[in-house]
């Protein structure tokens, strides 16, 4: 596990595997960011290297220089921290991305020193988060030779770097130490979410997912109450949505409830996550190529798993496998949801909204002030917003603004999408209260409209609710960027934690 610490020792004197330094645009090239504290000879050498490399000083422009005169570290990693376009002024987001890109380039190391402009709380947090997440590597199923018993030894999921030391003016500063601790907690939660997403479906399925969450809470000694509802309990609770989705699998569904209640909480917020550990599409089977990354469907549930905040938080992890077994549900089936609403199944590959709907109903019953669900829900959202931006839909404008504000602070791009009332008629059914899917147009929006139906109390009064569709940014299949490598990204963890932490500030 990667350890984050602060240091205020002279930057050039650190004996480390790598020293990370920031660069910024300078005319047609790049230069070292101010405040680096290097000896003149080292700075001159590196500026010459930047010119030779044709460096730009912008995010994802990374260069490595070995054996720099006057620097004890074995190599120096020069990373751009300016936006890819515009005036070139760095921000917390670009610092996070730039530092992450540098740590990815640094590779496996015992110790890395990070010296970037981090003079404010926001910048220090961004640098620490980027550095920690840039080291991420999922190696749980990689082997490293033979064990004493003659079998192959397996690595554990961990980072590539043992220790990261962030350069600051005063390593004993209490505020800086508190900022670093929060950044480490957030980054560890995001890395855990990545682990869950990257774990193959034969290892991570509803019961083992629930076991993993319980074990993590126990290991970290979190004051969280956990309840796991098995398939019999879900049936007795009337959760027909998740029971129907999971009935085609030999591995039955689970809903995991997590409740954290501090003394004198400022309010209560509930998170609901879709955790489809593998999705074949059910009877409406997917093309084979589309199944390869379906394990990313548990990213939404993973995002709600790390709780430890000054507001009461309830989490509902809705876990199921969507398989085409002999008892799988069929198009045309009608199920009764936890809320009592009957739903006609139109497409078994639109299973996520069914498990979420039952989770939302349970969350409403908890008495939460607001409910936020997170899911890799629709390809339509990816068509609209691409692979790096999530869509946000809500029945409450103030809640929508708070979610978007948290996303902006967390550096996770999100964009508001509407819930057009004229599309609601697409969910009318001739045989049930609702059908769970509309036609091909506005698919992300009709999914949101369907979920909105369950954000109501027993009297039918709407409860503030927001839906975050992370279908695009939850799993990175293209080239790595910033602190994001290929595979699960842990997207939305930072947003949810920021939302919960700021919930009491009305």
TrEMBL record:
Question: What lineage does the source organism belong to?
Answer: Bacteria, Bacillati, Actinomycetota, Actinomycetes, Micrococcales
Class in the EC hierarchy, top level: hydrolase
Q: Which cofactor does it need?
A: Mn(2+)
Q: Which gene encodes it?
A: pepA
Q: What does this protein do?
A: Presumably involved in the processing and regular turnover of intracellular proteins. Catalyzes the removal of unsubstituted N-terminal amino acids from various peptides.
Question: What biological processes does GO assign it?
Answer: proteolysis
Q: Which domain of life is it from?
A: Bacteria
Tell me which family the UniProt entry assigns to this protein. Belongs to the peptidase M17 family.
- MF (Gene Ontology): manganese ion binding; metalloaminopeptidase activity
Species in which this protein is naturally found:
Nostocoides australiense Ben110
Q: What is this protein called?
A: Probable cytosol aminopeptidase
In terms of PANTHER family, this protein maps to: CYTOSOL AMINOPEPTIDASE, LEUCINE AMINOPEPTIDASE-RELATED
Q: Which Pfam families match?
A: Peptidase_M17, Peptidase_M17_N
Q: Which GO terms describe its cellular component?
A: cytoplasm
